[in-house]
Specification:
single chain; 66 residues; mainly alpha; 3 helices
């Protein structure tokens, strides 16, 4: 199997993927930490996830009503 960076480079050169994203180490740590917290909440406090989901949905509905 090819190295991921080689595959990405080939795709970029062929125009398959015209964009590259660069995330700092801090960005990656933050993203992975957030994902772990969300997964923990899903396992141990799913009601919190549901409350947040409802809140986000209400906010989106309010924004669309404007």
């Amino acid at each position: 199997m090819m190295d991921k960076s080689i595959v990405e480079s080939i795709a970029y050169e062929r125009g398959i993927n015209k964009y590259k994203t660069n995330f700092s180490k801090e960005d990656m740590i933050t993203a992975q930490t957030s994902e772990m917290v969300v997964n923990w909440a899903k396992d141990y406090h799913p009601e919190v996830i549901e409350k947040i989901r409802n809140l986000v949905e209400e906010n989106m509905n309010d924004e669309n009503a404007k």
